C-alpha cells in the first residue's frame, strides 16, 4: 500500500514554534507598558524592551537561572538534568534486555484485552497529578509505555495520551497538589481543604471524560490502523520503539528479574518521595530518615515527601548503578549504555529550557505585572456567576504565558481572590477556577515543557497533538465552566 503525502504547509518543529513565541513576546515588551505588582498593588515601571540579544539569551537564562533572571525558580537545569539522567537510567535498563522480555510478557498477558490498560494507567497517573502535581516526573514513563502500547496494536499518540492527559487532567482537578492547590490556597489565605468537595467532583468528571476520549481513539485504531494520526510514520516508529523486541517465549534470567525489581522500586520510591506526607500529618518517613541519618557513613538527605528534582535525579543515578551490578553488566558496557541513554533524551532536556524562555522574556521585559493588572481590572465588580466564568477565561491565556502553576498562583491569586470577595465569590472557587484553566491549557500549550517534552519523546508533531487533543480540551473547558457555575450555588 502506498501512502500519498500531501504537499503544502507543514507545522514547524517544536523548537521553532517556541523561538517564534519568544520573539513575539519580545516584540510585545516594546508595546505593552512596563509595570509590576508588589503587595497587591500595581506600579508602573521603567520600560525594558527586549532585543535580539535578549531573545537569543532567553533559553540560556531559563536553563541556568542567571542573576539577570528576576525569578531564579525559572531555572530549568534541575528538570533538564533530571530528564537526562532518566534517559541514562532507561539506557542501562534497556541494555539488560529485561524491558524487552517484560514488554513481550505484558503483550502476551493482555492479548485480546489490551484496552484495559488505558483506564487503569490513566487513573494512576491522574492520582499522581491530583496529589502532588505529577508533571516533569512523567518523562521517565514514556520510554517504557510507548513500546508497550505499540506492541499491543496502538500507536505513540495513545501512549502519550495515557500519560500526558492522565497526569495533567489530574493536575486540572488538583485536590491536594501542593504546587497548585497548596500555593494558590496559601496565597488566598485559606486552607487546602476549602473547596475540596467541588475539586473531587472535578476529578471524577474530568478523568472519566478523558478516559472515554482516549479509549475511543484506541478502539478506532484497533479496528483500522490507518485511522492513526501518525500512521504515515508507523514503520519508522516501529523501528525506533520496537527494534529490540524479543520472542514471547524468552525467559527472564536471574539478573533480569533483579533488574526489573529495582526498576519498579525506583518509581515507587520516586512517587513516595514527592507526595507531601507532612500535609496529611504523616511523619513515618521523617522519623525513618532521622534513624537512617544517624547510621555511620550514611550522610544527610531529606526525608521522603520532601524530595524534589535534585534528590530524584540522584535516585535514578543510584538505581542505574545498582541495576548495572545486578545484571553483571561490567564497567565498560555500563558506561556506554548510561551515556547512550543520556544522549537519547538530550533533545527533550533542551526543549524544557527553550519553553521557559518565554517567561524569562516577559519578566525581564516587565510586562507580566501589566498583563495581570489588565485582567484584574476587567474582573472587578461583577456578579458571582459572571465573575467565576471570566476568572476562568482570564486564566486560560495567562496559563500559556506562565505555564508554571505555582508561579502563576503566586503571581495572581493574591490579586484575584480579593476581587472575588467583592462579587461574593469564595477564594476556594477562585483557586479551583485557576487550576482548572491551567490544567486545560497545559494539555496543549507549546510553552509547557511537559507537553513539548512528551511530544519529543513520542516523536509526535505539535500540530498532530493539537488535532488529537483539541476536541478534548474544548470539552473540558465547557464542562469546567458548567461545574464552576454550579460551584457558586454550593
Architecture blueprint of SSEs:
Layout: H1 14-31, E1 35-38, E2 41-44, H2 52-64, H3 77-96, H4 98-109, H5 117-132, H6 142-151, H7 156-172, H8 178-188, H9 196-223, H10 234-241, H11 254-274, H12 284-293, H13 309-326, H14 331-344, H15 346-364, H16 368-379, H17 384-401, H18 405-422, H19 427-441, H20 449-458, H21 462-487
Antiparallel strand pairs: 1-2
Helix pairs in contact: 1-2, 1-15, 2-15, 3-13, 3-14, 3-15, 4-6, 5-7, 5-9, 6-7, 7-9, 7-19, 7-20, 8-18, 8-19, 9-21, 11-13, 15-20, 16-17, 16-18, 17-18, 17-19, 18-19, 19-21
The CA-CA distance between the termini, in Å, is: 58 Å
Number of helices: 21
Helix content: 55-70%
Task: Going across the biggest sheet, name each strand in turn.
Answer: 1-2
The beta-strand count equals 2
**Main sheet: strands, sense, barrel:** 2 strands, antiparallel
- Which quaternary structure do these chains form? single chain
Q: What order do the helices and strands follow? A: HEEHHHHHHHHHHHHHHHHHHHH
Radius of gyration: 23 Å
**Overall body shape:** globular
Return the average pLDDT rounded to an integer: 83
Fraction in beta strands: under 5%
Residue stretches low in confidence (pLDDT < 50, at least 5 long) are: 1-6, 68-74
Return the structural class: mainly alpha
